[in-house]
Design brief:
Blueprint (H helix, E strand, L loop, with lengths): L1 H8 L5 H10 L7 H15 L2 H11 L5 H26 L14 H4 L5 H15 L2 H13 L4 H28 L2
Function: Antioxidant protein with alkyl hydroperoxidase activity. Required for the reduction of the AhpC active site cysteine residues and for the regeneration of the AhpC enzyme activity.
Keywords: Antioxidant, Disulfide bond, Oxidoreductase, Peroxidase, Redox-active center
Family: Belongs to the AhpD family.
């Protein structure tokens, strides 16, 4: 199991992350598709090739092709949107009158239930640090009556995956020294 490979690869100083990662992959707050899609989307958002490959190996046993592609699509579109809306927000409204002009069709037609895609987008936005997108996706999820605990679990998952990616990147860099 590739999740086990990730845990084994974490150095001793990342023991908390190892334990947290082991717990989050067993989450009962999210259904299987939400959980594994969020793991794939957030792994892609971390830009850790190793983490994405390991998570994908297990995720492909759980997710349909549509869900897997939807999770990768959430990471990709949020990679664009998080930069755009975070930057636009930092410019204090000076560009609010201008049209974004960005194609975002996948948000309307993700190939999975809208709530799942929104949850993945929220998790990626947490990693990418876009408060505008976090707020927008959280509002859509709450309006769709997704529970606060499921939303919070997606945020926890994002933080754990981000920390695991950082620890793996650090371990890989130091192994080359």
């Amino acid at each position: 199991m590739s999740i086990d490979n990730i845990k084994e690869a974490l150095p001793e100083y990342a023991k908390d992350l190892k334990l947290n990662f082991g717990s989050i992959v067993k989450s009962t707050e999210l259904n299987e598709q939400q959980l594994w899609g969020a793991l794939v989307a957030t792994a892609a958002a971390t830009k850790s090739e190793r983490l994405l490959k390991e998570i994908s190996e297990d995720a492909l046993d759980v997710l349909s092709a549509e869900a897997y592609n939807g999770a990768l699509g959430a990471a990709a579109i949020m990679g664009m949107n998080n930069v755009f809306y975070r930057t636009k927000g930092q410019l204090d409204g000076r560009y609010d009158d201008l049209r974004a002009g960005l194609r975002m069709n996948i948000i309307a037609n993700p190939g999975v239930p809208k709530e799942d895609f929104e949850l993945w987008s929220l998790a990626v936005s947490a990693i990418n640090g876009c408060s505008h997108c976090l707020s927008a996706h959280e509002t859509v999820l709450r309006d769709a009556e997704v529970s606060r605990t499921a939303i919070f679990e997606a945020i926890r998952l994002a933080s754990i995956v981000s920390g695991v990616a950082q620890a793996l990147l650090t371990a890989d860099a130091l192994a080359a020294v």
